[in-house]
Design goal:
By secondary structure, this protein is of the alpha+beta class. It has a single domain, classed as B-lactam Antibiotic, Isopenicillin N Synthase, Chain (Jelly Rolls), CATH 2.60.120.330. Helix content is 24%, strand content 24%. The protein has 7 helices and 12 strands. A hairpin with a 2-residue loop joins strand 6 and strand 7. The model has no long low-confidence stretch (mean pLDDT 94). The structure holds 2-oxoglutaric acid and fe (ii) ion. The site of 2-oxoglutaric acid has 12 residues, from strand 3, strand 5, strand 9 and strand 10. Fe (ii) ion binds next to loops. This is Fe2OG dioxygenase domain-containing protein. One of its GO terms (molecular function) is oxidoreductase activity.
Length: 259
């Protein structure tokens, strides 16, 4: 998948142009920064985003991309379901709770493939690959090409994540925080750039069907006063996040009841 992604980014600008500057729900789009229409400064990042489930989409070039993508997305969906079974159990719920309540294993569940490419930057200390943010969705399964750059906020400090060979990193997303009424927190992370090597990261975001309302699970809320977040559909949340430049957990904060 990493090799095919490199080949995609290596295509001539002309070949990628058909996917450039498209809208949030267009099947395939690529570009620079996060949302160049609203970002105040551009980010040192090229991206490719593909809606791969419920409808599978893939660019026609490079020629091997589609087949590898399809298999990669199927396997990561299985992995996400398995992780969600474990997370349900960890909350004292039935193993199938999250998958069933949110329709994660249904034919309508949503999966977004996001590939990031951060070329070497002559002055890395002046640039940012991706600013601090948390991901939408329940879980993001992330793979990296062995070059460091991801940092996770832990106890108020940025911690470098060493990309272990042949490993995945799993980030909890904002919908996990909403669903669990804050028992699982979405993780704030960012990507910094370097002046030596091109970094590639590939994430798949796993969520419910786009029109499913995600709200705190009744089983995890003691009473009305304990409900910490407003419900929102996955679709509306994606639109909300895309309408602003990325900034920490500012999207989720809008749904949080102040204590
Ligand atoms: O490049 C990375 O490691 C992080 C990518 C990321 O956070 C994202 O695509 O949401
Ligand atoms: Fe992210």
């Amino acid at each position: 998948m990493v090799r095919e992604t490199e080949s995609f980014f290596d295509l001539r600008g002309e070949e990628k142009k058909q996917y450039a500057g498209k809208k949030l729900f267009d099947p395939i789009r690529c570009g620079t920064s996060f949302n160049a229409n609203v970002d105040k400064t551009l980010l040192w990042r090229d991206y490719l985003k593909i809606h791969v489930h419920p409808h599978f989409n893939a660019p026609a070039k490079p020629s091997g991309f589609s087949k590898v993508l399809q298999e990669y997305c199927e396997k990561t969906r299985e992995m996400a379901s398995e992780l969600l079974r474990g997370i349900s159990e960890s909350l004292g719920l039935e193993e199938r709770y999250i998958n069933e309540k949110l329709g994660v294993e249904s034919s309508e569940s949503h999966q977004l493939f996001v590939a990031n490419m951060y070329p070497p930057c002559p002055q890395p200390e002046l640039a940012m690959g991706l600013p601090p943010h948390s991901d939408h969705g329940l879980l993001t399964i992330l793979m990296q090409n062995g070059i460091q750059g991801l940092q996770v906020m832990h106890k108020g400090k940025w911690v470098h994540i060493n990309p272990l060979p042949n490993s995945f990193l799993v980030n909890t997303g904002d919908h996990m925080e909403i669903l669990t009424n804050g028992k699982y927190k979405s993780v704030v992370h960012r990507a910094v750039v370097n002046n030596k090597a091109t970094r590639i990261s590939i994430g798949t975001a796993h969520g419910p069907p786009l029109d499913t309302l995600v709200s705190p699970a009744k089983e995890l809320v003691a009473d009305d006063a304990d409900q910490a977040y407003l419900g929102i559909t996955y679709r509306n949340y994606l639109e909300l996040q895309q309408s602003k430049s990325l900034s920490g957990k500012s999207c989720l904060d809008r749904l949080r009841f102040s204590m």
